[in-house]
Amino acid sequence: MDFSSFFTSLGTSFIIFVVLMLLFAWLSSKQGNAVVYYPNRILKGLEPWEGGSRTRNPLAWIKEALSSSEQDVINMSGVDTAVYFVFLSTVLGILVLSGIVLLPVLLPVAATDSGIKKHANTTSNETFSELDKLSMANIEEKSPRLWAFLIATYWVSVVTYFLSWKAYKHVSALRANALMSPEVKPEQFAVLVRDLPDVTQGQTRKEQVDSYFKSIYPDSFYRSMVVTNNKEVDKIWGELEGCKKKLARAEAIYAESKKKGSSEGTRPTNKTGFLGLCGKKVDSIEYYNGKIKELTQKLEAEQKVTLREKQQGSALVFFTSRVSAALAAQSLHAQMVDRWTVLEAPEPRQLVWSNLKIKFFDRIIRQYIVYIVVFLTIFFFMIPIGIISAFTTLENLRKLLPFLKPIVEQDAIKTVLEAYLPQLALIIFLALLPKLLLFLSKTEGIPSGSHVVRAASGKYFYFIVLNVFIGVTVGGTLFSTLKTIEKDPGSIFNLLAKSLPGNATFFVTFVALKFFVDYGLELSRIVPLIIYHLKRKYLYKNEAELKQAWFPGELSYATRVPDDMLIISVVLCYSVIAPVIIPFGVLYFALGWLILRNQALKVYVPSYESYGRMWPHMHTRIIGALLLYQATMLGFFGLLKLLAKN
């Protein structure tokens, strides 16, 4: 990639971002779009526009985001969101403090050396040599200049450790304040009990649980609720809710026909057969009223049967004080590990009811199976990602697909392909993965939705670091280095050391593409806006359906946090090797903080509250990224023979 391709990529991405930001400023001021751009405020009964005025500065959202406090974020989106912003602020601080030292010191040190001139066969095969001169690729082996890079490595490590420690203290205080708040939640008085032993003859499951906990907590035990198999009840409930929605839609259509036509209107009809395409034609309002009455009676009967006959081996136990519930959740209640497993009760909306019945050893087996599947997924995904990285360079496209040579050699097409092709291929490929990892995490038998998200986030982090960072770094030089490795297998380490600085340009473009285009789309919300207006015009007829169309969902930590972790891993690992990447990392997290602050305050509605339980995972992976960076630099200094002269 040459300078023209690099600046084409950056310039085009920046123009796209500016256009999307202007679109946001224009579209968000329209009254009909308020439910797309301000749903969180609307659901909380606030005016969409602060101050109630739509005729305001189009950049006012920036001032509002910057002036908002941590308490504002907690009030609008909860402690989990506030903790996420602590993470963004911490990483941003690490990169800013690192860049203040690394950029003015290392760039002149690298630029004034002559390593590339003395080694004609660089990893980039003499392409993009201008940027290579600003990296460690331009430092000669055994050069005393490497001491500057060694000291910089220690500086980045010290900054990361210090800011991570400060952030951990801050999040701990946030979580403690939230849990000690006078505004108590029902789940704080409860525990989740799994792995109940078989009941004795003549005793019900509820009697078993009540007697057990009364004997241990005689003064604070309140009651228990045994979990039941609600599969049939849920099926009937789903049918009943579907009929209610169809009835509301039919009534809305009938009311609309009265306004447009005669005062009597036209009563809607439907067919009762398969998918409404065949069968007897009936009056929709009468038909769905009859179905609702029938299903209500059926539901009540099934609920009685379920409570009596379908009790399972888990229960929710309630206490009269939060202290007793906390003590119970942290205590061992049986000598055998597979009986009377007691956990903190998650929020009711978080419970994964279908997983509560899964026994202890079944969960262990499921967990190992999922780990094996994830390992195989990571391993075998390295193959296609390595192929993508290798194939999507123009030189390899010319060799492997000769018929494309006349096309890719045109200057305009060549510039665009070099700027975007590898990065777009990688981003599209990664978009297919998150749903699979969420499904696998749920399959483990995890009892709460927030825990499923944390588990999926961890799997996704390991996947993208191993496949994207390591896979692309090695795969980018796959075809050009195979013959060299075949002749001299011992040269693989030298080739790897030299390939990392060359791949810095790929990751600079990758980071720029993500923060300009991804955050531009996030702010403008073009896709949700189009979907909402299409559904409003052609599909949905009543208020309940319209709310379903514009309801924004949550911040989606399962994919957002690992994506951020990939960026910090890449930027840390290349911070000393190619310091020019640091400003792009700063821009990524600064824009992310600003835009997501706006979205947290005005758009997204959290689906759960775990009081910052994601933080230990974030912190551990920041340290993991730092250790990966330190191992990378250790290899560099060894391979470039820093100490060989001494």
Describe the structure.
With 646 residues, this protein is mostly helical. Helices cover 67% and strands 5% of the residues. It is built from 26 helices and six strands. It has a four-stranded antiparallel β-sheet with strand order 2-5-1-6. A two-stranded antiparallel ribbon has the order 3-4. It is globular. The two termini are 37 Å apart.
Supply database-style keywords:
mainly alpha; two-stranded antiparallel sheet; 67% helix; globular
Question: What can be said about this structure in brief?
Answer:
With 646 residues, the protein is mostly helical. Helix content is 67%, strand content 5%. The protein has helices at 3-27, 34-37, 39-43, 60-67, 70-77, 79-111, 115-118, 129-132, 146-179, 205-216, 231-260, 284-309, 322-329, 360-391, 394-400, 405-408, 411-430, 434-443, 449-475, 478-487, 492-524, 526-538, 543-550, 557-575, 582-602, 615-639; strands at residues 190-194, 221-228, 269-271, 281-283, 311-319, 341-344.
Question: How far is the N terminus from the C terminus?
Answer: 37 Å
Rough outline: globular
Biggest β-sheet strands, sense, barrel: 4 strands, antiparallel
Q: If strands are numbered along the chain, what order do they take across the biggest sheet? A: 2-5-1-6
Q: What's the overall average pLDDT, rounded?
A: 81
% residues in beta strands: under 5%
* Helix segment tally: 26
